Amino acid sequence: MSLRILIVDDDDALRESLALVLSAEDYEVVAVPDGPAALGALERAPADVVLCDLRMPGIDGLELLPQLARKLPGATLILMSAHGGPDLAIEALQRGAYDYLAKPFTPSEAILAIRKARERERLRRENALLRRDVARVVGEKPIVAASESMIEVLELVERAAEFKSTVLLTGESGTGKEVLARAIHAQSPRRSDAFVAVNCAAIPEPLLESELFGHARGAFTGADRARRGLFVEADGGTLFLDEIGELPLALQAKLLRALQEEEVRPVGESKSRKIDVRVIAATARDLETEVAASRFREDLFYRLNVLRVRVPPLRERREDIPLLVDHFLASFATSLGRPVRDVSDEALSRLVTYAWPGNVRELENVIERAVILARSEQIGVRDLPPNVLATSAAETPSGASDFSLRDARRTSEIEAIRRALAATSGNRTHAARLLGISHRALLYKLKEYEIRD
Predict the structure, then answer these.
(1) Which residues contact 386 (CB under 8 A, 6 or more apart)?
(2) Which of 40, 138, 141, 220 maximizes the CB count within 10 A of its CB?
(3) What is the pLDDT of residues 371-412, one digit of tens each?
(4) What pLDDT, in 10s, does the model give residues 205-225?
(5) Please, what is the average pLDDT of the chain?
(6) How many C-beta neighbours within 10 Å does residue 50 have?
(7) What are residue 160's phi and psi, to 5 degrees?
(8) What pLDDT was estimated at residue 221?
(9) Domain boundaries, the chain
(10) 11, 13, 49, 50: which is closest to 33 by C-alpha?
């Protein structure tokens, strides 16, 4: 199916020549002189790409862009203008444009801009399909990952799922350890049996033994009926012991025996019961340190530490943040009934550079809040909480080297941009090509680094 392109420009010669060039590329082209004609054309047939001039009689390009974005939520909008600089281009991008073409431009530059925009859209759709497929494979919740570190984690999870061996998931709070535990169960031969989860830190110590192993009627005050316990409930399936590092020492010995003998004895009973349970444990603590401090049994640690998977914190996999933002945005927009469809580039930049001490769980909460507070179809900087705006990645406790690396990258980028601009006599489109980035990205960096031509 041919790509439909709408050209909106009051310059007859440019409009006709551009239509001719794009038609030669096998695009289906409609060319109109102004905003009202563009809106009328879209009533008859939608467009995949719109090339829109800035200055036109009646409705100018900046006024037209939001209307086009509402009518064509999946289309690529490109603004064309011989006037203005980076500030104008950024305003156009904030109003829904994908790119900005500075006049005069060559036909090849227009074709390249369209191809890049469509390639981005293709990749976005592929990522959406990939996330959908992953969600279907692992079960209840999707695991969104593009970073090398998380891809390695998912590969480990997939390999571990086949076996009954105990898995120990380590990582900071909020990194998604329970989601991974459920993914292991969902891909295992035990998937048709129960997945039982318990947070060892959430149950008072006097009740924890009964919760795990069960009790007989009358075993203690208040035990007016027998209880099976979570090990028995998970028989044939998987038991997830979250925050295993919080387990009291007295119970650690009983857990070790249950794992080694594959049997449990309810409180107040004289006989043990055989069980077939696959155990997955998780902790935010450093268990080696806990063992050295005699707060965790060494023999239990080695029994749990058969297949160990470290889940990296979000600040170590920043390339996953845009994908996670897209996922949470789509989820909350649907569940909350809000017409929010994307995040502004500046807001996304703040999200990517924030340190995320609460990891994925914190990001999920921030996006839910932003969807509720957003005053338009796009989440902007003003919709983000103050702590995200006040804290950047440079403030994470990773040491002075982080600052020096950021400074070095900034210095090298500024120097490279200045050389590219000098080599192209200030032509930003050509400079962006030399730098291997989009024209849009160059405009942002010119503004961010306050580089003057």
Answers:
(1) none
(2) 138
(3) 999 988 899 999 999 999 886 434 434 433 333 334 545 666
(4) 878 888 888 877 766 666 677
(5) 82
(6) 28
(7) -70, -30
(8) 65
(9) 4-124, 148-311, 318-395, 400-448
(10) 11
CATH code of the region 318-395: 1.10.8.60
In the beta sheet, which residues pair with residue 100? 79
Nearest-angstrom CA–CA distance, 219 and 159: 42
CA 232/CA 235 separation, integer angstroms: 5
Name beta bridge partners: 83: none
Model confidence at 432, pLDDT cuts 50, 70, 90, reads confident
Length of the chain: 453
What is the pairing mode between strands 342-343 and 378-379?
parallel
Give the type of residue at 400. A
Fold of 148-311: Rossmann fold (3.40.50)
Give a three-class secondary structure readout of the chain.
Answer: CCCEEEEECCCHHHHHHHHHHHHHCCCEEEEECCHHHHHHHHHHCCCCEEEEECCCCCCCHHHHHHHHHHHCCCCEEEEEECCCCHHHHHHHHHCCCCEEEECCCCHHHHHHHHHHHHHHHHHHHHHHHHHHHHHHHHCCCCCCCCCHHHHHHHHHHHHHHCCCCCEEEECCCCCCHHHHHHHHHHCCCCCCCCEEEEECCCCCHHHHHHHHHCECCCCCCCCCCCECCHHHHCCCCEEEEECHHHCCHHHHHHHHHHHHHCEECCECCCCCEECCCEEEEEECCCHHHHHHCCCCCHHHHHHHCCEEEECCCHHHCHHHHHHHHHHHHHHHHHHHCCCCCEECHHHHHHHHHCCCCCHHHHHHHHHHHHHHHCCCCEECHHHCCHHHHHCCHHHCCCCHHHHHHHHHHHHHHHHHHHHHHHHCCCCHHHHHHHHCCCHHHHHHHHHHCCCCC
Angle at which helix 12-24 crosses helix 107-138, to 10 degrees, equals 50
pLDDT at 27 exceeding the cut of 60:
yes
Tell me, which fold does domain 4-124 have in CATH?
Rossmann fold (3.40.50)
Pairwise CA distance, residues 183 & 162, whole Å:
12
Looking at the chain, the whole-number percentage of residues with pLDDT higher than 70 is 85
Task: Show the tokens assigned to 189.
Answer: 């031969």
Please check whether the domain covering 400-448 is classified as CATH 2.60.120. no
**Strand partners of residue 76:** 49
